[in-house]
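Service request form, structural biology core

Requester: graduate student, group of Dr. S.
Request type: structure prediction, single chain
Budget code: on file
Notes: please return the result as structure tokens.

Sequence provided:
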Amino acid sequence: MTHKPILGLTPTRFIFILASIPLLIACGVLTRQPWHEMLLSVYSVFTLMYLAEGRRAGPACGMLFCLGYAALFFSKQIYGLAVFNTLTGFKFIGEKINAFEAATRDGDEARAFSFVMGYEESYGYLAGTHARDKDAVVSALLISEMAAHAKRDGHTLPGRLDAIYAAYGHYLDTQDSFTLAGKEGLEKIRAMMVALRASGSPFPETETVIDYSQPVPAEPGFGTLPTSDVLKYVLRDGSWAAVRPSGTEPKIKVYYSIKEKDALRAEARLNALRGVVAEKLGLVKG
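Core staff response, request fulfilled:
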């Protein structure tokens, strides 16, 4: 595939591009050779591995339940980090940090974890406890530091990613957002969620359906997650999909987390699940 230069830059002039917004909370990464968008879960994998290997940080990680299967896997299986699932939004990750700190003050060892990193779907990351919101400044510094370490060793970030996938399997996390215009669109989305709850999973080979509108247990000692209008379908091969309406706008998102042997199989699996969403829900990716 031939890619056009971005912002007038050619691939020979830079290693990667960092992008944020004026509030400096979200952070996106684009690398070169080949052009590769470092998606949320990919950056999270790198950062968790980097923090665990180089800094030997504490035994906890807060993360969003709708994305980041790969980071969850690597955190638990390779580094022995505890993984805490939250609902969408740094409000909930901040609450976990506060709970960890309160448990430490109270001498509650069962709940006294050290926070390493949290992230959510909108390119938001937090490494450290200096804030209770996503922080693009620290994220950009960590990305730059990781890229420098990789370059020093004769590698690139995409190359490191390929090595991780070769060793542990290929993970593909993505999402599709659909807008159904007007009041009718909002009503259609509500009806869609009612129908999904009534009819079961639209995806073949579903192993478990998690309905977050009902109390879902959090990690031991932390009660239950707040309720939310979300349905998650865990499939037998370890992949999953989740459906989440906006609630305030006529928008609905479908999240996918694919687990496969390689990139080609992962893309094929993703396309198959998107086909189910198009056929059963009438949501077609533009």
